[in-house]
From TrEMBL:
It comes from Streptomyces olivochromogenes. Residues 166-175 have a biased composition (Basic and acidic residues). Residues 159-182 are annotated as: Disordered. This is Aminoglycoside phosphotransferase.
Length: 409
């Protein structure tokens, strides 16, 4: 089962050599099964499960030569959110497995091959286990606890430095926001992302002009499936974007995955295994959790009606993990980071306005059609949930010494 005939494609002889060396078998016995991934991302040349006999591995090809003509273009800037070679560096350095003591591991790197055409082939362990797509809320919460323990340990280890545990009194300067952009000792690398949140959402502009377009909000998919108040909430989230970004950039810093969602995590015995480390870098305390929770709904892994239950369980477990590893900072900072992370999705409502007229709605990976009514209903409910997070962040920030949000317009 091949997306393309890999062994007969250009560069096939190089691949034959890799298969022989990695799997220890003649290349013509290998079966390439294409795996679901973001086809739009310019850094991903392809992802396959490669099987020979009773052994299987995963091959992921990183590239900078795949033009997208849009927001997913690959970058040569090592700090850019979509730096094309970052994932190889994360695996090669061992950072991908640095959370293993707290129960979050990653596939073992079997080989990283710099190909003559400039691409990089990552040969990775094929991790068996249940995908996060089908996890129970209790299992999601346990992953959140482990993530909290890993972040708490890093913050505790850096407590004696200028970038260790922060309280409300030492995160703000005379201008109201004092960025704590330095990384805790031991994990920063020159190829880890910086300003991920700001740069990622700034690249997403599709449909922005429709936020104030009455006709776009009257489309039947939007009108019939977005609850009352969604338009006002999403417009204000966009208006307050700079304030939210300022808050996120001023919170304590932790090494973050920055793309945690159910499709990127697998149960691996007693551990969780995280894949897709392409965005990894400097993040805010609470940011990984704030990404993970709503991302259970966008692609219909969990009903939006269960978001409050998931959020309560995951947040409580996350804080427990932080405390478990010795972090004694102000819990409200974690809450603020999670809630203010709502800004990451301020581009999604405009995108849905733009796509409401499309004849076919495709799932993540673009392989299967999904029911448009269900997608718009679930995401509309999730927007209401995010609006609640945004409102909570606006109330909480001044209590911690941050400047208040702009007055609603």
């Amino acid at each position: 089962m091949r997306e393309v005939d890999q062994l007969d494609a250009e560069g096939g002889e190089i691949l034959r050599v890799e298969v022989r060396e990695i799997l220890g078998t003649p290349a013509d016995r290998a079966v390439f099964e294409p795996l679901v991934h973001n086809l739009k991302n310019g850094v991903t040349g392809g992802v396959w499960r490669v099987t020979a006999g009773d052994r299987s591995v995963v091959l992921k090809v990183l590239t900078r030569g795949k033009g997208t003509g849009g927001s997913w273009d690959a970058s040569d800037d090592p700090r850019h959110w979509n730096f094309w070679r970052r994932e190889a560096h994360v695996y090669e350095s061992g950072l991908a497995r640095s959370w293993q003591p707290w129960g979050i591991t990653a596939p073992r790197l079997l080989a990283s091959v710099d190909r003559p055409d400039g691409d990089v082939a990552l040969w990775l362990e094929d991790v068996p286990g249940e995908s996060g797509r089908t996890w129970s809320i209790a299992r999601h919460a346990e992953h959140a606890r482990r993530l909290g323990a890993a972040h708490g340990a890093a913050l505790t280890q850096g407590a004696d430095s200028a970038h260790g545990t922060h309280g409300a009194d030492d995160t703000h300067g005379a201008d109201g926001i004092h960025g704590t952009h330095g990384a805790a000792p031991g994990w920063d690398r020159p190829w880890l992302s910086r300003r991920f949140l700001r740069d990622y959402i700034s690249a997403r502009t599709v449909g922005q002009e429709l936020l104030d377009d009455d006709a776009a909000w009257r489309h039947p998919l939007v009108r019939d499936h977005f609850p009352a108040g969604v338009r006002e909430a999403m417009v204000r989230l966009r208006q307050d974007r700079e304030w939210f970004l300022g808050i996120m950039e001023s919170l304590p810093r932790v090494f973050s995955h920055l793309d945690q969602w159910p499709a990127s995590v697998v149960s691996h015995g007693p551990d969780s295994a995280l894949i897709d480390w392409a965005f990894a870098g400097d993040g805010a305390l609470g940011e990984d959790l704030g990404n993970y929770i709503p991302d259970t709904v966008w692609d219909l892994f969990l009903p939006a009606a269960r978001l409050p239950e998931l959020a309560a369980a995951a947040y409580g477990a996350h804080v427990h993990g932080l405390r478990e590893s010795g972090w004694r900072g102000d819990e409200r900072l974690v809450r603020l980071g999670m809630c203010a992370s709502a800004v990451k999705y301020d581009w999604l409502a405009p995108l849905m306005l733009a796509r409401a007229g499309e004849a076919r709605q495709l799932d993540y990976g673009g392989k299967r059609e999904v029911a448009a009514e269900r997608r718009y209903r679930e995401r509309g409910s999730a927007f209401v949930f995010l609006a609640g997070w945004a409102a909570e962040a606006r109330e909480l920030a001044p209590l911690l010494g941050f400047p208040p949000a702009p007055t609603g317009r």
